Amino acid sequence: MTNTVTRSYKYRLYPNQTQQKALGDILWAACTLYNQALAYRKKRWQESRRGVTYYEQAAMWRQWRNEEPEENPLRVLNMTAGQQVLRRLDSAYRAFVKGQRGAPRFKRVDRFNSVTYKPGDGAAIQNGRLYVQNVGLVKVRWHRQLPGVVKNIVITGLNGRWHVCFQVEIEAVRPALHPGPAAGVDVGIHHALALSNGEFVDSPRHLAKAQARLRVLQRTVARRKQGGRNRRKAVRQLARQHERIANQRRDFWHKATRKLAGEFSAIVIEDLDLNFMLQNGNLARAAHDTGLGMFRDLLAYKAIEAGGEVVAVSPQNTSQMCSGCGCLVPKALSVRIHQCDHCGLRLDRDVNAARNILKRAGTLPLGANVDGYIVRSLRSSPS
Ligand SMILES: [Zn+2]
Question: Between the CA atoms of 25, 239, 112 and 298, what dihedral angle is there, to the nearest 10 degrees?
């Protein structure tokens, strides 16, 4: 059985000075279009309490782009790429109307850093380079092969560096069922991950170092004079460091999830409400730092690719309950060891939680030896 999946392939771009300026102008035009379209929506709502459809805005865009052809700075933006900007605004509005998100806000030019093209319409691969309308042929570092059919070409500029991201459709072959055992995984603060088999996955030390460097840079920025050259330089260094940390964190989660998906057929995790956690002070920081959302997303697709699956279970009492006998053993967050007076079980608190999480997948009787258990029934219902 085959179906298609969408994947992103990102490559570094090396535009020359003139091309950098031209790409910057395109981002500026895209941001201006976004804000102009948003202003129109707000105005119309205030005046007549009527919404604006994407199609109305697409017609407006056509008009804005075609007026004063000589010195209209919006013209550098490709027509279809402009439509993508409006679609982005439209979906932000839909999410707002459904109550899933706050009202869309005006974007700052320095925060608006990507434009999406349809291949062959304003952007295309030509002679090993990336052709971009009004920019020319831009040098690309092809560090890996680009497979499949390109559906979208996204150009991003961040902190003076340019990338292209090809969104590609590839045939996915449904893999054979994963032969490995099941595991419960607890996502924590002390260890990034604790597994029901007693293993830990820790975030790398260089990430902590990078964060220490970040704090130094933050202090440097605070000390520099407003509007000065040195401050601008420090701000740029700080932005680079943020980017570096984000990259390191993503690398770490890629590695960690690849390992889990390779080893286990069913990976059981807690079904945590991320929105709730993010609004909840201290937990928010922890969840943010450990990159819980990224972990879940990466894990899900890697597990499916490997023929396994991810199961989410209720998080209630997973850390307080004894995985040996089921009794509640209350303990503060600072207590690292689970010590049960009822059955004598003694082990790391996070491993205890991971075992409870695995059990909650519903296939194991209380007190069973969980190591090496193969949870086959979890996979019987394809989704
Ligand atoms: Zn016990």
Answer: 130
Q: Please confirm, yes or no, whether 350 is among the known catalytic residues.
A: yes
Q: How many domains is the chain built from?
A: 2
Name the catalytic one among 56, 70, 71, 186. Answer: 186
58 and 127 housed in the same domain: yes
List Cβ neighbours of 359 (8 Å cut-off, separation of 6 or more): 184, 323, 366, 368, 370
Q: How far is the CA of 342 from the centre of ligand 1 (A)?
A: 5
Answer left, alpha or beta for residue 118, where phi above 0 means left and psi between -120 and 50 means alpha. Answer: beta
Report which of residues 366 and 108 the model is more confident about.
Answer: 108
pLDDT band with cut points at 50, 70 and 90 for residue 1: very low
Amino acid letter at 94? R
Whether 71 and 194 map to the same domain: the answer is no
Span 114-142, pLDDT tens digits? 999 999 999 999 999 999 999 999 999 99
CA 290 – ligand 1 centroid, Å: 29
Residue 210 lies in a domain: no
Flag whether the pTM goes above 0.70: no
Q: How far is the CA of 347 from the centre of ligand 1 (A)?
A: 11
Q: Are residues 190 and 164 in the same domain?
A: no
- Which of these is catalytic: 47, 70, 350, 371? 350
Q: SS3 breakdown of the chain: % helix, strand, coil, rounded to 5?
A: 45, 25, 35
Does the annotation mark 121 as catalytic? no
Query: Residue 241 falls within a domain, yes or no?
Result: no
The 10 Å Cβ neighbour count of residue 156 is: 17
Instruction: With residue 115 as reference, give the H or E element that holds it.
Output: strand 114-119
